[in-house]
Design goal:
disordered C terminus, five-stranded parallel beta sheet, alpha/beta, Rossmann fold, 2 domains, 16% strand, Arc Repressor Mutant, subunit A, 11 strands
């Protein structure tokens, strides 16, 4: 069995290149996505004498909360690299990191967090100009292609749709279901509740399970609230927390020119299809699934967003619908150029982009993605650094 240490992460070299630049390095991403492993690899590469501190430990939280630069110097000593794991659990961590950047520039600090924690602290200004911020997601199609080639990863495509890309799941053949069940039971809600805005476990479970059953479909907060027994505002707040903790992400509807375009609609996807399937306890193979269309769509959108992030390609992204039921699965804008994509798990003929869209938005690049064409969409411009 291979370890996650043998799978290079796309941002490893980029993070390593920031060592010693006088700014705090932030590694954000979901639990078990490999942040600690990445930090260890960066530390090993740097060769610097390293101090490890964890926000999971009570004494570390006490030492690093509401502290001073003098105290930090005493804690760090002669260490040239300090890694603060699970930093979001430390009170007023933003102030502490600001002190590190301003008063201890000779010590490189790397902070990891499994939620979008408040880096400004309760009373201090944000870390503007004092940080490099990177997001680490579960392993990606591009990273696995770099690891063992396009052919091997294409052969595993159905497996990835069912079990996803969490590092331990990828490297533990035969244990995928057990590991995903542990992941969703032990970690999925941990940070949501730590943020203090979600208080009802049963309600949160109903919300994520309902979202899991609706992938590929537009989501109405009002309708979702009726299904789970909560008001619209509560549903939206819980989804916002799930998004900040890297469980789900939202796509808004694209609307600029046509009168009948849906303007305020949204879809909600999961960052990992394995987590999604674990939530509804459905690990059936692809040929037995009725949700393969939505699953394929979720997989492609999440992997495209990872590829853009790791490749350093800022982009805007949407889906498109009209009241006349015309649709496009995915629209992206990079450098002022629009591209429109349709996703099909099985296609007897190439799907067409609606004529009304092409007339309203001339110059749009178009394409479609099937399993046979997946690398054209997910590796196009992917930069493995």
């Amino acid at each position: 069995m291979k370890t996650t240490n043998s799978i290079n992460r796309a941002i490893e070299n980029l993070v390593s290149a920031r060592i010693g630049k006088g700014k705090v390095i932030l590694l954000l991403g979901p639990h078990q996505s490999g942040k600690t492993t990445l930090a260890r690899m960066v530390a090993d590469t740097s060769g610097l004498d390293t101090l490890w501190l964890s926000g999971d430990e009570a004494d570390a939280r006490v030492l690093l909360s509401d502290t001073t630069s003098t105290r930090l110097k005493a804690i760090f000593g002669a260490k040239k690299l300090v890694i603060i794991d699970e930093a979001q659990r430390i009170g007023n961590i933003g102030i502490t990191l600001k002190l590190c950047a301003d008063m201890l520039p000779e010590t490189q600090v790397i902070a990891t967090g499994s939620s979008a924690f408040d880096l400004s602290g309760a009373t201090s200004e944000p870390l503007t100009g004092r940080k490099y911020e990177y997001h680490l997601f579960p392993l990606s199609f591009g990273e696995m292609v770099a690891h063992h080639g396009v052919m091997n990863e294409r052969r595993l495509l159905e497996h990835r749709l069912i079990y996803g890309y969490y590092p331990e799941v990828v490297t533990s053949s035969g244990e995928e279901r057990e590991l995903l069940s542990l992941l969703t039971d032990s970690y999925l809600y941990k940070d949501v509740f730590s943020l203090g805005l979600a208080k009802k476990t049963a309600l949160l479970e109903r919300i994520v399970q309902t979202l899991a059953l609706q992938i590929g479909s537009e989501v109405s907060y009002n309708e979702l609230g009726q299904l789970v027994g909560a008001d619209k505002e509560t549903v939206e707040r819980y989804i916002d927390m799930l998004e900040k903790c890297y469980v789900v992400f939202r796509l808004s509807s694209f609307s600029r020119n046509l009168r009948n375009e849906l303007k305020k609609s949204r879809k909600i996807y999961f960052w990992d299809t394995g987590v999604r399937n674990a939530l509804i306890r459905n690990f059936n193979p692809v040929h037995l699934r009725q949700d393969i269309g939505g699953l394929w769509e979720n997989f492609l959108v999440a992997e495209r967003l990872k590829a853009n992030h790791y490749g350093g390609r800022p982009a805007n992204y949407w889906f498109w619908r009209t009241h006349a039921q015309q649709k496009i699965d995915y629209i992206e804008e990079q450098g002022g150029v629009l591209s429109a994509w349709e996703f099909k798990w099985r296609a007897t003929k190439p799907p067409r982009i609606p004529k009304s869209f092409l007339e309203a938005y001339p110059g749009t690049v178009t394409g479609y993605v099937t399993p046979e064409k997946v690398e054209e969409f997910l590796l196009d411009g992917f930069k493995h650094r």
